[in-house]
Amino acid sequence: MRKIILFGGSFDPIHDGHLTMAKHALKQRNADELWFIVSAQNPFKEGSSAFHHRFEMVKLMTRPFKKMKVLDLESRMPLPSYSIDTVRVLKAQYNDCEFEWLIGSDQLPTLNQWKAFDELRQQVQFVIYSRDSNVDTQFPRVIGPVLPISSTEIRKGFITKTAPCVLQYMTERGLYLDEILRNRVSMRRYEHVLRVKDLALEIAAVHHVDAHRVALACMIHDLCKEDSDEILLNIMKATFPHHIDLHSAFYHGFAAASELSKKYYVRDKQVLNAVRGHVNGASTHKIGIILYIADKCERGRGYDSEPLISLSKRNLVEGFQEVKRAQGAYLRRNNE
User: Domain named Cytidyltransferase-like: which ranges (predicted)?
Assistant: First the structure.
């Protein structure tokens, strides 16, 4: 009989703490494999990211480990996802396997609330992961470090304790950008960014420009807008010293592009250039042009921008040039 450890969860996203648990469980339980069971819908959680995204992120994180697999079983089962239903299917499908179910010690108090728990504990051996042996339980233990990491904190942008490939995947697909932005800037700034994105996607659709890349540039462009002058200056000194003489109004675009690249491993040069140059329209790629127009013409700006929007839809380059002229005239008036 092969010994298989089952590790279920939302994994929204998977992080270093999950991987640490999996590694210690495999070794201490002398298991043949560990299978990640990505829940289609956790009965104790609401509003998870789409299953295929969470599944792909687990695949990316576990790719280097031959004894780890990820199953999409629950995506094909009725909702909501219950562990007992998953185990019944696995037992019928793999009668040559002995299954254990790995959980963290923090789940012990609610374990008896799981559907058909009495049957479930007869079907699988529960294994409890904890930092020491002081946990009061009759189940076998796996002892290892409990990392102070939560998927919630990653979604909010507070930490990035997961694999670079996961950070890149989730950012390029915009999985948590809304939440990251809401936890970083004021509501006024957040609403501005959403209006910029909406208008940019409107223009991008007319000109057949990739919506995902445009949305990413829009959602990130003002991420650092409300960071302190000191923080922005330090970023410019460390990362863009040759641009330090620019007016400080440009700094937040450079800082946001730097964060997108260094923190979230995005390597799309056209997106990065669009974010970096959105203040003055320095990027002449379509993504940069669309971001610049949408930033200056979003419908909450307090002036009638529809003529400029219409022109930009008819001819992107002419619209870009006209918005730049209008912006230049506006700045000159305000400097007089």
Answer: 6-156
